Amino acid sequence: MNEKRRGYWLLPILPAFTLLSLGLSYFVSAKTPFLEYYANPIFIYTGLFLVCLSVLLAIKNRLHFKYRHDLFATGCLVIWFSYWQQYHSIQDAPLFLFYPLFFALFSIVLSYNLVWSRNFLDMSEIEQFLKISRIRFFTFPVLMLLTLASLLFPYFLYQAFAITMSFFMIRHGVVLTLELENHTN
């Protein structure tokens, strides 16, 4: 089925991740009582389940990569938000408000500049995207491992999660753009 007819290309590059990010930033800014429940370890296990499911689906090659990556990013965000509450107070640490807000805005900006504007790309830009997609350090397994490893350092490397997730989102946007460009041309 054509991606254009399905309308997926109109959504942000990681739709569930973007919606969860917006929801978390709203919950933190509104100081809702839901945040107390989010510190429950069941959310960490839910995030781990989503991450493991996305990896298993990637190994079995059962689901398109855009859905697997959305599962992975959503799972990492759930783990991050639940696990890091043990080390940082939501009221004292602005990262609980700004990281999800940054992720949502970054997803929308990447969607606009890469996927939604792909019809305006010329051949030199597509070649640059292909070069980026061939960088060995910039592969999905490496970025996934780095993102998961960054979740383990809530004190010393607290910015590592935002950085690795941003690289993951950039890689996903580039690969999605290249795939959609190949299907439409």
How would you portray this structure in words?
By secondary structure, the protein is an all-alpha fold. The protein contains 9 helices and no strands. The longest helix is centred in the last third of the chain and has 25 residues.
Topology summary:
Elements: H1 3-6, H2 15-30, H3 34-38, H4 41-60, H5 65-83, H6 95-116, H7 123-133, H8 140-150, H9 160-184
Helix pairs in contact: 2-5, 2-6, 4-5, 5-9, 6-9, 7-9, 8-9
Low-confidence segments, ≥5 residues, pLDDT <50? 1-5
Helix content, binned percent = over 70%
Instruction: Please provide the ordered H/E string of secondary-structure elements.
Output: HHHHHHHHH
Cα end-to-end separation: 15 Å
Q: Helical region count?
A: 9
The geometry reads as: globular
Gyration radius from CA atoms, angstroms: 17 Å
> Quaternary state, please?
single chain
